[in-house]
From TrEMBL:
Coiled coil: none annotated. Gene3D superfamilies: alpha/beta hydrolase. Its EC number is 3.1.-.-. Pfam families: DLH. Keywords: Hydrolase. Residues 17-242 form the Dienelactone hydrolase domain. This is Dienelactone hydrolase family protein. GO terms for molecular function: hydrolase activity. It is an enzyme of class 3 (hydrolase). The lineage of its organism: Bacteria, Bacillati, Actinomycetota, Actinomycetes, Pseudonocardiales.
Length: 244
């Protein structure tokens, strides 16, 4: 699949980005893909390319752009290497709800302005921390996000006043959330709380739990699951196909 690397201007500086597109002539529906905690790397580019092969122009931005030219993480060792784990978690914590919302406006604007992208609204999808970012983008860009997905997203409905489930009444997109049976970051009480919030807000939403572990959809995650990954692609194609 073709890939175009370019730069997106944000209020906090320039951010590297890549647009993966199908072969042939566009325009195509636009999708914003948020990575997991490891950030943009080869495995995430491969995921964006696969989604592009299904007929979408997929934007992959560097969500850690405020950290400059940061060194990539090795997912095989990052959680057992304490200094690397500390660096990873520090970068994750730096993505405050305010920064995510500011960047979301920049990402969606840049995607819709690309000549390869058609339509006036986009889809979003995210993995792990990216699941929260996907839903927050739908809430903060309600008129420009038509479909939003989260896969093994954690902490989607916590007691934190800034928890994304508290923004359910702002969402206009159709929502799909897939948790995992083995995932302490999104237990049953959070699933219930998120579902209740979306339902009360009148959001069209599907919440499912895959028989897999946290990280099931990402190819270089130690907990990657082939069957769950394919199920997630099928779900995304249905969601975006119906709404974009």
């Amino acid at each position: 699949m073709p890939r175009t690397d370019f730069t997106i201007s944000t209020p906090d500086g320039d951010a590297a980005a890549a647009l993966h597109t199908p072969d042939g002539d566009g325009p195509w529906p636009g999708v914003l893909l948020y990575p997991d905690a490891g950030g943009v790397r080869t495995a995430i580019h491969d995921m964006a390319a696969h989604l592009a092969s299904l007929g979408y122009a997929v934007l992959l931005p560097d969500v850690y752009h405020r950290h400059g030219d940061w060194a990539p993480f090795d997912f095989a060792t990052v959680f057992s290497d304490q200094p690397e784990r500390a660096r990873l978690m520090g970068m994750v914590r730096s993505l405050t709800p305010e920064f995510v919302a500011v960047d979301a406006e920049a990402w969606v604007t840049a995607l819709l302005e690309r000549p390869e992208v058609g339509g006036r609204a986009v889809g979003t999808t995210g993995y792990c921390m990216g699941g929260v970012m996907s839903l927050r983008t739908a809430a903060t860009q309600p008129e420009r996000v038509a479909a939003a997905a989260s896969f093994h997203g954690g902490n989607l409905a916590t007691d934190d006043p800034a928890s994304v489930h508290r923004l359910a009444d702002r969402i206009r997109a159709e929502v799909y959330v897939a948790g995992a049976t083995d995932d302490d970051s999104f237990p049953d009480e959070q699933k219930q709380r998120l579902g209740d919030a979306l339902s009360a807000a009148g959001v069209s939403a599907t919440l499912e739990t895959y028989p897999a572990a946290h990280g099931f959809a990402v190819p270089d995650a130690p907990t990657h699951d082939d069957d769950a990954e394919q199920r997630h692609w099928d779900a995304l194609h249905r969601l975006f196909g119906a709404n974009l």
